[in-house]
Amino acid sequence: MKCFAPLSLFHSALLAFAGAAILITGCQPPGSGASSETSGPKSAVANEAGSTDVLVPKDASPSEVAKVALQFIQDNNKKGLLQLVAAQKVRQDVKGIAGGRDVAGMVSKAIPMAVAAIAAEINGLEKEGREIGDESIQGETATVTVKGTILNKPQSRRFFLVREDDRWRLVPSHR
């Protein structure tokens, strides 16, 4: 009988994160057309995060980017949200977490997983009554509060943003 060594804490966490992302995104293969993009701010769909064809001006504030992101999340428009993600930063962070290695292809999956994590954070609030709150900028990073409710009690969540390619873009968190 062959025995396997237990997974390290890192690998266990990585597998749990990947599993959660698959559950949240519905395990849709890229380009399958099965995503549920609906109405909302019109955008040119990109295969890769980082397209500048989103209706967000280059000089948009973090709050303006957050407002568009919130609408994309409301509309379950993952392709639109994908275009607002700081792709280079997300990949860099995943490589850093994995010690510079592409463990189980996680670097290539990092952007869709980031979109799922960002949407899940905001979707923790009830859909009705979500609104953009305070903005805080610290150099090349920013946070924007989203106010809402959970079981009729006031709650808040945050969008995290970084400067990438001379514009504000979303990241799942500030590392």
Span from first to last CA? 42 Å
Rg, please? 17 Å
Determine the number of helices (DSSP H or I, runs of at least 4 residues): 5
Strand arrangement in the largest pleated sheet: 1-2-3-4
- Class of secondary structure makeup: alpha+beta
Order of helices and strands: HHHHHEEEE
Task: Please provide the count of β strands.
Answer: 4
Overall geometry? globular
What would a concise description of this structure say?
With 175 residues, the chain is of the alpha+beta class. It has helices at 9-25, 62-74, 78-82, 87-97, 106-123, and strands at residues 131-138, 141-150, 153-164, 167-171.
Keywords:
175 residues; 20% strand; alpha+beta; disordered N terminus; 4 strands; 4-stranded antiparallel sheet
Folded structure, characterized:
- Helix content is 37%, strand content 20%.
- It has a 4-stranded antiparallel beta sheet.
- The model is unreliable at 1-53 (pLDDT under 50).
- A hairpin with a 2-residue loop joins strand 3 and strand 4.
- The protein has 175 residues and is of the alpha+beta class.
What is the strand and helix layout of this fold?
Blueprint: H1 9-25, H2 62-74, H3 78-82, H4 87-97, H5 106-123, E1 131-138, E2 141-150, E3 153-164, E4 167-171
Antiparallel strand pairs: 1-2, 2-3, 3-4
Helix pairs in contact: 1-5, 4-5
